[in-house]
């Protein structure tokens, strides 16, 4: 098995304070981590945190790289409704600034839904919304200049959702000048087969051929639902539709891409074991210093 080049971590809770979040990262053996910087189910503007400096310093001490935030689930930059689209643009911009103040490198945002008037119009709105959110964030940040980088996540392709295909992600890269996040559970239920080592190798090759070097993050989730079902649902690694022997081939085809799990919480011991398992599947417990 080749030497590991992918940094491994998971999404972490922030309840109890960011100091507790850092302690969880240490206990689980995370090399990267993802958090929410605001309530993902509400529109409230994220407030400055008193423990921001603790998080910035602690992340550096633990060597967490990159540090990631996930944007609000309510954000829909592709919506045909101008009021929702405008609210989404401002909400994303605010989160980019809040994340930047916490030393967060990347903010994952969903591609959204075109609402029934076609993928072409939805993609136009998505690209415009991303550009405007970045510009607005720069204004909000002012002289601090602390703005995290937004990256677009692939969808399961349900209903009118955008970006369920690698080609669509490639369009975002080319048109918006942005990098992307690839969720493996979304990928599988959108129709990309990961159920055998050979299939996983081909998916990684297709992703690289389509998106190139602009894959900023891998959301590593086993799929609860069937191939091509377009139904979201995450399982712990090895407990869903993707056999564990397939993951090494995916990692081999995506060297150096950071990995964050969003699998169900199952207690600190079990979650630490899952992080350890993924490190082994990716090439070993120790990450190559020259590979990332």
Short description:
By secondary structure, the protein is α/β, with parallel strands linked by helices. 40% of the residues lie in helices and 13% in strands.
Stretches with pLDDT under 50, minimum 5 residues: none
Assembly state of the chains shown: single chain
* Secondary structure category: alpha/beta
The strand count comes to 10
Largest sheet: 8 strands, parallel, barrel
Helical content, roughly? 40-55%
Strand order of the largest sheet: 1-2-3-4-5-6-7-10
Q: What do we call the CATH homologous superfamily? A: Divalent-metal-dependent TIM barrel enzymes
**Total domains:** 1
Note the gap between the termini. Answer: 17 Å
Q: Kindly provide the name of the CATH class.
A: Alpha Beta
Shape: globular
CATH T-level topology: TIM Barrel
Portion in strands:
5-15%
User: What's the total helix number?
Assistant: 9
Q: What is the mean pLDDT? A: 96
Please compute the radius of gyration using only Cα atoms: 18 Å
What would your notes on this structure say?
- Helix 3 packs across helix 4, helix 5 packs parallel to helix 7 and helix 7 packs parallel to helix 8.
- The mean pLDDT is 96.
- The chain has one domain: Divalent-metal-dependent TIM barrel enzymes (TIM Barrel, Alpha-Beta Barrel), CATH 3.20.20.150.
- The protein has 292 residues and is of the alpha/beta class.
- Strands 1-2-3-4-5-6-7-10 form an eight-stranded parallel β-barrel.
- The radius of gyration is 18 Å and the shape is globular.
- Helix 5 links the parallel strand 5 and strand 6.
- Helices cover 40% and strands 13% of the residues.
């Amino acid at each position: 098995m080749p030497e590991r080049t992918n940094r491994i971590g998971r999404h972490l809770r922030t309840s109890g304070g960011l100091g507790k979040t850092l302690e969880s990262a240490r206990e689980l053996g995370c090399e990267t981590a993802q958090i929410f910087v605001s309530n993902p189910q509400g529109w409230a503007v994220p407030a400055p945190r008193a423990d921001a400096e603790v998080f910035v310093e602690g992340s550096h001490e633990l060597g967490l790289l990159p540090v990631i935030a996930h944007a609000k689930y309510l954000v829909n930059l592709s919506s045909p409704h101008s009021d929702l689209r405008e609210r989404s643009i401002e909400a994303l911009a605010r989160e980019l600034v809040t994340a930047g103040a916490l030393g967060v490198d990347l903010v994952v945002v969903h591609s959204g839904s075109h609402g029934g008037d076609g993928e072409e119009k939805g993609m136009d709105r998505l690209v415009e919304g991303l550009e405007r959110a970045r510009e607005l964030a720069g204004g909000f940040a002012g002289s601090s200049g602390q703005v995290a980088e937004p990256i677009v996540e692939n969808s399961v392709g349900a209903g009118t959702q955008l970006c369920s295909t690698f080609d669509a992600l490639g369009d975002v890269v080319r048109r918006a000048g942005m990098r992307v996040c690839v969720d493996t559970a979304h990928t599988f239920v959108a129709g990309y087969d990961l159920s055998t080592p050979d299939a996983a190798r081909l998916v990684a090759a297709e992703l690289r051929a389509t998106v190139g070097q602009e894959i900023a993050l891998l959301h590593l989730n086993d799929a609860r639902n069937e191939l091509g079902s377009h139904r979201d649902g995450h399982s712990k690694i090895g407990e869903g539709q993707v056999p564990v022997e397939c993951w090494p081939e995916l990692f081999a085809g995506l060297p150096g891409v950071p990995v964050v799990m969003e699998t169900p919480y199952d207690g600190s011991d079990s979650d630490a074991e899952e992080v350890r398992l993924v490190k082994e599947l990716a090439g070993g417990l120790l990450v190559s210093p020259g590979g990332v």
